[in-house]
Design brief:
The protein is mainly α. The protein is built from 2 helices and no strands.
């Protein structure tokens, strides 16, 4: 198998991984937006703020993973 063929296979494998990470990142961002529009009890608001911090952290991790995979396989 030639190097070009191997690169094409890797690119074909990497693209779905990046798409999956981006989809999950989008879902987390949508969840954050949902937290922003819900008002209510201060106790519930405090819990939502804690969850929002966790979601922001997960979004950053997903962004980093996308950047790493993209850097490793720029043609992907």
């Amino acid at each position: 198998m030639s190097t070009d063929e191997k690169l094409k296979i890797m690119a074909a494998t990497v693209k779905p991984i990046i798409n999956l990470l981006q989809k999950r990142q989008g879902n987390k961002i949508d969840a954050l937006k949902a937290y922003d529009v819900i008002d209510g009890d201060p106790e519930i608001k405090k819990i939502r703020e804690i969850e929002a911090v966790k979601l922001r952290h997960e979004v950053e991790i997903l962004k980093d993973l996308i950047d790493i995979v993209t850097a490793m396989y720029p043609n992907g």
